[in-house]
Hints:
Elements (H helix, E strand, L loop, with lengths): L21 H27 L7 H15 L17 H8 L4 H24 L5 H9 L2 H7 L5 H17 L2 H14 L2 H9 L4 H22 L5 H5 L4 H19 L2 H4 L8 H15 L16 H10 L6 H46 L5 E5 L4 H6 L2 E4 L6 H9 L4 H15 L3 E6 L5 H4 L1 H6 L8 E7 L6 E3 L5 E3 L5 E7 L2
Parallel strand pairs: 1-2, 1-3
Antiparallel strand pairs: 3-7, 4-7, 5-6
Helix pairs in contact: 2-3, 4-5, 4-7, 4-15, 5-15, 7-8, 7-9, 7-15, 8-9, 8-10, 9-14
Amino acid sequence: MVNRTDKTKIPHGKSQLSKNTPVDRSAQKIYLITVVSMFLIACLIASIYPRFIVDDFWILCRYADNFRTSGHLVYNMGEYLEGCTGILLLFLLIISPLKYILTVHLLTVISFIIGGITLKLLVEQRPQKFLILGMYLFAPIIYTHIFSGLETILFTTLTLLGFYFYIKKNNHGLLITAVLISLCRPEGILFAVVLLFDNKKLRIKYLAILLVYLAVKYYYYGDLFPGSYYRKDMNIEKNLLSNWIQFRGFLLFYFPFVLIFYSKLKQHLRFVIFCLVLWGYYLVSNLETNFSYRFFFHCYPLLLAVVGVTAQKINKKLLIGLFVIQGVLFTFSFIREFSYVKEHVKMNSYVEKTGILLRDNYSPSLKLAVYYDAGLIPYLSKMNTLDLSGLLSKDIAQFEHYNKGNVSEIFTYKINRLLMYEPSIFVITSYYRDSVLKRDAFTNVLKQYYSWNDYKLVGIIGDTTKEGYTTDDGISQINFGGYYEYVFVRHH
Length: 492
């Protein structure tokens, strides 16, 4: 009888077709090197990407400063209005020993990396893992958000973590993520509901925490909604067309439609519905902001994750084609983002110069009014500020909210509010090349009021590298091509 017993001793729990064979170890090594290289390239891009801080970031800094000095979470002392989209980033700025800009950049860079690692863990067993991970790490729009100073990257990373804990059925992770994302942005409450929809025990705990948070916020501010809710309210007739054009551009550059047909999205349909609902809300909201199509990024990483974990194997040639097409689209998008960021870095320098002008030449005890730029200028000047755009003036925002489309009444209300406030200094942001009092619709109405004669234009801040000219008013003005800060001072 032939003895078929192999004398080679096989370790307990392993087979001859062990995953640790030389071929598999080599494949794992190549995979690891590829993933690490992708992260290193992403870090290299981040290191050379121009820094653009959105003006709203300085609103957070003003809240943080006021809390540190007085213990009150307010924009103006004595005025209780929630002017921040969420409390999470503000809290992190308050407790950080570092400078505000350094703190927010560290937070967002770390969040970006954690988001990438989470996405890698979610899709590493799927056939399109490199494409999905690359579409996150190399999406040009993500770098603009990383250095914007806003909470967008914190939000997107929390959506990825929440989805990861949902897949892994990690209850502790689910509850912590649900609470944190609810504190990050109001939309996070909707995501938390989606996340805990079929987990009754966690849902009850979360609702208890949420109710306490909302009760404290209502007691403190007298409102459940932040000022941005009224400022960026829904108006389908006014907003849908312009927002749809921006959204269409976002989809063209950032979403691989082909993968949808190779993914079983029904497995995680609730998360797809969340993304669609959020996009629908943004489409009909007032997004009068420099960010335009970049606003639609909030759902992008989560939708990538859902597509990635449900992806089916596709033809190798098609996959290579998707890599090439997405690479070309991202290249064009990078050019577009670099141009956008550099332009706004220059524009921000004019806002900063205006704030420094007020800080160095006028007392912080004076009253200031601003039309649009309510972040850096008030932050540097330290003056009590009336924000005529409505983001940080609840009564103005609510008046606009309930009088949609009635421009004449809105202008009249704002002007009466301005003249009753009697600011010593009034700064108007304008996009016109000639005198703001000749072209701007709001100031054309304003100059008809007798009290406006008390104000004198003392400076126009713009690009000093370009040729200037003199307007009919005799004011020497800089021709910048679309962005100016007009500074008016009241003379008694």
